[in-house]
Automatic annotation (TrEMBL):
It is found in: Cell membrane. This is G-protein coupled receptors family 1 profile domain-containing protein. GO terms for molecular function: G protein-coupled purinergic nucleotide receptor activity. Keywords: Cell membrane, G-protein coupled receptor, Membrane, Receptor, Transducer, Transmembrane, Transmembrane helix. It comes from Etheostoma spectabile (orangethroat darter). One of its GO terms (cellular component) is plasma membrane.
Length: 313
């Protein structure tokens, strides 16, 4: 019945209006669809839909995926801003593109810190007795984090619109289209963000050092024990987390702090501008490097990735 209805609909369609059309019975005869986006959908599908929140680490990983997705939404705005000389596109990028970029960046920083703290507590509290290791606490922490960052982003966008001034030529920096009040808020937010970044960085270094020390002591006492192997695996996972964190976010903040205080000096403006552009690109690479974290920390992701590779072959 449904096949007959489909034939009637096909026959009623005016195929003469669509030139060079050829009907095929086998979909494999059509042009193959590009599968380059499959790894991204694999990450989202595995972490967001398939995996149950069996641990707080999994909940933080899901939120890290959301932060990466927000960054991917801001990239078309930035690319269009660089590709055109439109003042309107530049304003949109300054008000929304950068806001989404910073939202993703510092949300990623915080959730990577939460993941590191969760892995550290799993080593020092293997029985899971600490309150921060309980699964119901992780959604609360994640919700508070998102509400805080979304509130700061909304305040920043509102102030950006209210303090925006007209200009006749395209300014090099977004600071050129805003008044002194906005720049003051901009500097306060970024100084606070740098303090937040330094806190997470110090915590990551401490976690890695503490786990490494425990691994050394365990290997000296029982080098072939299963506990030593588990601790060594935890140290490896923490090292990968620290490397990704440092590569993506440390260069940006090494340039960010001097820019806050030296941007008004002409001798530093060009150096700081190009330094910021390069380090922003490096910070955006966390979208590409975060799947490494998913792979080592999420067993479900590893399983589906292997199945995807097998099916692809």
């Amino acid at each position: 019945m449904s096949d007959r209805g489909g034939e009637e609909v096909t026959s009623s369609f005016n195929w003469s209006s669509v030139p060079n059309q050829k009907k095929v019975n086998n979909l494999t005869d059509c042009v193959r669809i590009d599968s380059s986006a499959h790894p991204f959908f694999l990450v989202v599908y595995t972490l967001v839909f398939l995996q149950k929140p069996s641990s707080n680490t999994m909940i933080y990983l899901k939120n890290l995926v959301v932060a990466d997705f927000l960054l991917s939404l801001s990239l078309p705005i930035r690319i269009t801003d660089y590709a055109t000389s439109s003042a309107t596109i530049h304003q949109v990028n300054c008000n929304f593109g950068y806001s989404i970029l910073y939202l993703n960046m510092y949300a990623s920083i915080m959730f990577m810190g939460y993941i590191a703290a969760s892995r550290y507590l799993k080593v020092v509290q293997p029985l899971g007795t600490h309150i921060l290791q309980s699964v119901p606490v992780a959604p609360i922490i994640s919700t508070v984090t998102w509400v805080f960052f979304l509130a700061m982003t909304c305040i920043y966008i509102i102030v950006s619109f209210n303090t925006q001034k007209s200009f006749t030529s395209d300014p090099v920096s977004c600071q050129g289209i805003h008044s002194g009040k906005h720049i003051l808020l901009y500097n306060i937010l970024h100084i606070s963000s740098c303090v937040m970044f330094l806190s997470v960085l110090v915590s990551l270094v401490f976690f890695y050092y503490s786990i490494s020390r425990r691994v050394s002591l365990a290997q000296q006492r029982h080098p072939a024990s299963s506990n030593s192997k588990k601790l060594a695996k935890s140290r490896r996972n923490m090292l990968v987390l620290v490397i990704v964190f440092c590569f993506c976010f440390v260069p940006y903040h090494l340039v960010r702090l001097p820019k806050i205080f030296l941007w008004g000096y002409c001798s530093w403006t060009k150096v700081l501008y190009y330094g910021m552009e390069v380090t922003v690109i490096m910070s955006s690479l966390n979208v590409c490097l975060d799947p490494v974290i998913y792979f080592i920390l999420c067993k479900g992701f590893r399983t589906h990735l292997r199945l995807g590779v097998v099916r692809g072959n």
